[in-house]
């Protein structure tokens, strides 16, 4: 296990990424969010819950995503960011569900809530990843194999309930009428938090089968490899239809209008999220793995590339367990 000093040094670049995301997103957000808030005050854009400030906040989020999805470039960017977000949600859920994950790492619903409220590109590198690194949760030494145990039932519950988030995100791209689209956006704000509460009762115990647990995690990540590849193919069709889309997205990093802020926000969200997990790959498996994920992102899409890495990572954890079993047999 790394010393506390080494772990702290690993945390600093991650926190720097989170701070950078916060400055890029919220340092430029006053005018765009003020405009959205005023629109919520001026007209009935969302039939609220009866609590004025909460209703205005939810209405602002609804209008934000409507703005992001109003253009082809917005849909293109949103698809990449949200598919990567799904892969990250799975990883966070799995790592927080292991037998000795640690109390703070296991607070998955809290991190989902913070991600929805403040942006995943801020919360993941500034809060979740530092906790993960301080716990040394990526350590695969054979003496720690029991710490990585996870219940098959817990993994099945994660897969089942996250399916509702997947369907919810699909609904954002469905050609709904305005009212139905607003409802889909509103549900997206709460669905990741709500579903995370449902799998909490299915805890990993000391008696959980480790080998079957690892196999179920592999299967779960492979599902999200498929989801990532499907979106990447759809995104390629978008570019074939309009070859200017990538350049339009890149130009928003340099300059954007108030009505384009939501797309800019999601571009930064996706880029920082990508860099944060690429940093994790670098720490755990080195430069070659990082290059492989980067190249894989171009070929299969970022979500699929990271999910493939998570598959590889789980295979390495499973090998550590098998090696530990062999060592135990030799001793006996």
From TrEMBL:
Transmembrane intervals: 76-94, 110-135, 155-176, 183-202, 222-240, 261-282, 288-312
Domain of life: Eukaryota
Keywords: Membrane, Transmembrane, Transmembrane helix
Protein name stated in the entry: Uncharacterized protein
